[in-house]
Amino acid sequence: xxxxxxxxxxxxxxxxxxxxxxxxxxxxxxxxxxxxxxxxxxxxxxxxxxxxxxxxxxxxxxxxxxxxxxxxxxxxxxxxxxxxxxxxxxxxxxx
Length: 95
Prior knowledge:
This protein is α+β, with helices and mostly antiparallel strands.
């Protein structure tokens, strides 16, 4: 019984550390502004879980990228930040 209590306590502490250290907060998201660099966004939100990019020929928009942070298992948050030519062009927060 003591071993089960210890295992539970360690698991609870690990969970608290992992979720408590996340940079994916509404406060950090709100600091992301149009025109920021990728490095500035990483400093605020951490590295994204997924990245995609596209370039639409003929429109002159340049390379467009979409980065996604997904924390569905820990509070149901998903953040998307779009970049155009390496700078934030748009962002969205979903819970």
